[in-house]
Amino acid sequence: SRISSDVRTIGTFASVSRFEDDGVSSAGLRIAGADSPAFAALLAGPPGVSRQPLEFVAPSALGVTVSYVDLPGWWQYLNELMMSIEDLGGMGLNDLVRSFTGIDLGTLLFSWRGTEVATITGDLGEVVQPGVPTDNMLGEVVYMVSTTDDAAARQGLSTLFGSISGMVAGFADPSGQGAANIESREVAGQEVTSYQMAPGVTVAYAV
C-alpha cells in the first residue's frame, strides 16, 4: 500500500547536539529508503537554509531556529492520501477542514507559503495559576515564513486570522458573544496587524 511504502521510505535518522560558547547547535542526517521518491523528496529538502532570518534576531532573544519545511508539499501529500482512501468517498483533508470550519486552508495558508520557517523566542509565557489572570499566556515568539506571493499572503492571513480570532474570542467569552480586538500599526515602515482574541492571547502578523 502507499502508506507502507512511505513508512519504509522514512529510513534511518540520526542527530547530534553540541554545547558551544554562543549556544547549542545541532545537526542531523537521514538515509531515506527508495520505495517512494516523492515522499523522500519531502523528507530531504535542500542541503542548507537561509541565514537571512538571523538579521531580525535581537541580542536578548532566548533562541532561534531556521528550518526547511515544505508545508505546501505536505498539505498536498495529506490531501492526496486521504482522497486515495475509498471509505472517505474521495474527500481530501482540505475539504474536510472546510466542511467543519468554513476555512479553505489550501487557498488562505498553503497557496503562498515557501519552504523555510524561522522561530525566534524572545520570552517565555507566564506560569498560569488558577484564578489569577495573566497578560502573557503565550510568551513572545515570532514565526517567520518564506512566501512565494506577498499579495496572496496578506489576503490569506487577513481572512484566516479574521475567522479564527472570531471563533477563539467567542469561545473565550462566557456569554459566547466575545469579539476579537483588531488593530493595525506601523513598525519600522511595516504594517503590523494584531488580533487580541482573549486576555493574554494576542497574535500579530506582517508581510
Distance between the termini: 41 Å
Tally of alpha and pi helices? 6
Q: Work out the radius of gyration.
A: 20 Å
Low-confidence stretches at least 5 residues in length (pLDDT < 50)? none
Task: Report the average pLDDT across residues.
Answer: 84
Shape: globular
Helix content: 25-40%
- In terms of DSSP E residues, the strand content is 25-35%
Give the strand order of the largest sheet, numbering strands 1, 2, ... along the chain.
Answer: 3-4-5
Structural class computed from helices and strand pairing: alpha+beta
User: The biggest beta sheet, please?
Assistant: 3 strands, antiparallel
Give the SSE order as H and E letters.
HEEHEHHHEEHEEE
Total number of beta strands:
8
What is shown here, in short?
This protein has 207 residues and is of the alpha+beta class. 33% of the residues lie in helices and 31% in strands.
